[in-house]
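Q: Convert this sequence to structure tokens.
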Amino acid sequence: MRNDVVVKEDAVETAKNAIIAVCIIVGVITLIAGVAVAVYKYLTPDYLDDFDEFDDDFDDDFFDDDTDFTDDVVPSEA
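A:
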């Protein structure tokens, strides 16, 4: 009877060790990927900095003259 309990405890302990090993491996892979992404983002040049001096006045041209066009409308006589 005692031998069966020891075997079951060993099986549970082995399963726990396998789960812990898998979690450690996944964590290490995630850590390496995170470091790789951080290094890539740090070392990659930002080409959008070339356009920082561009002043976008194009949209402002359409909205500067908010005139009311109701002066041209003639009310209909009904």
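The two ends are 105 Å apart (CA to CA).
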